[in-house]
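Appendix B. Raw example, untouched.
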Amino acid sequence: MAKEPERISVQHILISFAGAGTPATRTKAEAEKLAGETLARAKKGGDFDALVRELTDDSPPGIYAMCNRGQRAKSAGEYERDGMVPAFGNVGFVLEVGGIGMAAFDARTSPYGWHIIKRLT
């Protein structure tokens, strides 16, 4: 298993549902279906930034810089991995640059819904 990087930046699309702590109004089943469709579009080469603007239930552009465990944030715009929902870092830190993955909804590790994540750096 490759060593995880100290720092990364990612862009993400949050697909949420009613009751998950966001303004989203779709059902959980609708969100799961949309997340799968969105992941497929992104992996087929869809314009990730355009997908973010079209679909995210977070704030576009959805770009976050993160430092891994054992590192300190170098700026106000960088988040410590453990300061984010666990699934976010669990996916982001194992992706290759340019890679796309998804953190599925889980009440403990991804409580806001599904995160489709693209590693930028």
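End of appendix B.
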